[in-house]
């Protein structure tokens, strides 16, 4: 199939690597390129081909209505199916039809529906915004490519240092990655891109047009960094705390945190799982307590909105109390205040995360405000996605503030981000004598 590709696109299209990762700025033409490559695959080898987008609507708008519906020459078309977003096309050899291929648009919203097929080719679009990518790839999409050793193309504009960044840097001889800016498309007037540069923030322009891996624009917790992710071998905890954000269709998120005498927090593990009944959760919590060597918690909270779940878990023997959702500042609502307090802890480097807390790390790098809403004093709350562990951590840290006070340095001032029980001083160690029961990771 004859298509018109600009030089950067042509380089990608003709490269022989099985897995291609394309990090490109807006209007580079990565979506068009991916579809042209897929059309070539589909007209040469009979089979099933998928484009997987983050949502069904995105796939429909970008790859169906603006894409295949306008791009596929009529001589190749056998049948359109607008409800399933699929098209059957002819496989051509020596000028005659010898078979049929199907191209279909899918979404990653329900990963279980991506299992059990044999694909001849795959495109994953805007992968940086997909949730639970590692599970989707390992459990659903990767096995679909096995039978035919099918190729795959991964395309996206970056969104911080998340799973797309990791994929872009894959060290595997079957992968090749490219990084192009919006300027690399000669068909887009440079004056238009320059205008965007003048009207956008520096970070936003670098991410969206220069395709640079930056901190995700609009991030709620800008002070989170991978420097806070490490395994501590000399941490000396004095008690455990635990936060639960209850979900069912959405995941239940549980954070397990060790606290030392100077109020340094070390999150050593997490639970992040969907479709848990209270009985299931109770068993999982007991198992995790045994695994971590936890005898009791200094503080264990859960969202007060889940009153019936709290009551049932208490009846099952769980140490859990409703989180006190009250702001500690007159000028901030509760959500803004809890974000401020967790931000203070992050900025002061008073919390560290074990590398096994992968879902927590993922949410920190994706949890964001709606576009252009980044002021804590504004009423707009963060987007209600990638927020389950953020609520779990934010709530327990906020509840903690109501019972602990800022530690003071006798020779300086209050120590930012450091909170201790009011009756505990450096000369009063009795409080800690019976609490050094934590397993030291």
Compact overview of the structure:
The chain has 13 helices and 16 strands. By secondary structure, the protein is α/β, with parallel strands linked by helices. The chain has 2 domains: 7-208, P-loop containing nucleotide triphosphate hydrolases (Rossmann fold), CATH 3.40.50; 226-433, Nucleotidyltransferase, domain 5 (2-Layer Sandwich).
How would you characterize the overall build of this protein?
By secondary structure, the protein is an alpha/beta fold. It folds into two domains: 7-208, Rossmann fold; 226-433, 2-Layer Sandwich (Nucleotidyltransferase, domain 5), CATH 3.30.420.280. Helix content is 31%, strand content 23%. The chain has 13 helices and 16 strands. The protein has helices spanning 7-14, 30-44, 56-71, 133-144, 163-168, 190-199, 202-208, 278-292, 307-315, 334-347, 358-364, 388-401, 430-433; strands spanning 19-24, 48-53, 77-81, 86-93, 96-107, 119-125, 152-156, 175-180, 237-245, 252-260, 265-273, 299-302, 321-322, 351-353, 405-408, 414-420. Strands 3-4-5-2-6-7-1-8 form an eight-stranded mixed beta sheet. Helix 10 (334-347) crosses helix 12. The protein is elongated and about 75 Å long. Residues 373-379 and 422-441 have low confidence and may be disordered.
């Amino acid at each position: 199939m004859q298509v018109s590709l600009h030089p950067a696109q042509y380089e990608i299209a003709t490269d022989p690597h099985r897995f291609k990762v394309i990090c490109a700025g807006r209007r580079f033409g990565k979506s068009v390129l991916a579809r042209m490559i897929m059309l070539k695959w589909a007209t040469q080898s009979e089979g099933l081909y998928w484009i997987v987008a983050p949502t069904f609507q995105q796939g429909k708008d970008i790859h169906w209505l603006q894409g295949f519906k306008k791009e596929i020459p009529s001589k190749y078309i056998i049948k359109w199916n607008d409800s399933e977003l699929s098209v059957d096309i002819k496989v051509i050899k020596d000028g005659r039809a010898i078979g049929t291929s199907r191209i279909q648009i899918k979404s990653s919203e329900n990963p279980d529906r991506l299992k059990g097929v044999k694909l001849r080719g795959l495109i994953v679009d805007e992968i940086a915004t997909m949730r639970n990518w590692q599970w989707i790839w390992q459990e659903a999409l990767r096995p679909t490519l096995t039978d035919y050793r099918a190729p795959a193309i991964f395309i996206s504009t970056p969104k911080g240092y998340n799973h797309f960044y990791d994929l872009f840097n894959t060290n595997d001889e079957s992968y090749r990655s490219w990084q192009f800016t919006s300027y690399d498309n000669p068909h887009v007037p440079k004056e238009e891109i320059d205008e965007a540069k003048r009207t956008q923030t520096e970070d936003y322009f670098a991410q969206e047009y220069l395709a640079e891996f930056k901190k995700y624009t609009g991030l709620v917790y800008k002070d989170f960094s991978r420097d806070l992710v490490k395994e501590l071998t000399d941490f000396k905890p004095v008690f455990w705390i635990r936060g639960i954000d209850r979900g069912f269709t959405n995941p239940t998120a549980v954070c397990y945190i060790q606290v030392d005498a100077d109020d340094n927090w070390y999150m050593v593990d997490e639970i992040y799982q969907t479709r848990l009944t209270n009985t299931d959760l109770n068993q999982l919590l007991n198992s995790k307590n045994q695994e971590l060597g936890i005898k009791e918690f200094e503080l264990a909270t859960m969202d007060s909105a889940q009153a019936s779940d709290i009551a049932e878990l208490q009846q099952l023997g769980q140490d859990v109390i409703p989180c006190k959702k009250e702001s500690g500042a007159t000028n901030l609502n509760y959500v803004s205040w809890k974000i401020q307090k967790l931000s203070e802890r992050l900025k002061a480097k008073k919390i560290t995360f074990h590398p096994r807390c992968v879902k927590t790390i993922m949410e920190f790098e994706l949890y964001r405000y709606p576009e252009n809403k980044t002021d804590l004093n504004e009423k707009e709350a963060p987007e209600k996605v990638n927020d389950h562990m953020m609520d779990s951590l934010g709530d327990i840290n906020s509840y903690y503030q109501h019972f602990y006070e800022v530690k003071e340095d006798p020779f300086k001032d209050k120590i930012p981000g450091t909170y201790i029980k009011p009756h505990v001083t450096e000369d009063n160690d009795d409080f800690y004598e019976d609490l050094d029961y934590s397993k030291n990771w």
